[in-house]
Amino acid sequence: MADDVCLSSCSLNLVARKLAMVEADLERAEERAEAGEAKIVELEEELRVVGNNLKSLEVSEEKANQREEEYKNQIKTLTNRLKEAAASRDSVEDKIHHLSEKLAQAEARAEFAERSVQKLQKEVDRLEDDILHERSKNKLLQEEMEATLHDIQNM
Known about the structure:
155 residues; mainly alpha; single chain
């Protein structure tokens, strides 16, 4: 019996040690479980924050896409307006060239007309001088005819 008590005592000690070890393992496992649960809560919170950030980024991306589309439309509109302005500029340049040619022709005609006017004015002046000279001669001839007529009547 003493052997049984010794054996039981040894067994009890062994079981007590195993129990202490299992309890220590359990305590460590519970601590790890608590740490794991805390980590899970922390990660869930981080996941929620990341999810919110993702939603915010998606909204920002949508707005950026809308702005990009608006910018593309503006670029397209401005490109079309630029093409129209270039075509209009070409048309205006053609008109300017045409009007410049017409101006040069008009200036040449005006110059020719001025020279013609000067020539005609000289001719008018010469003819007026001729008229004055002829009137003067006519007057002299009239006076001579009157004198001759007077002489004939006095005879």
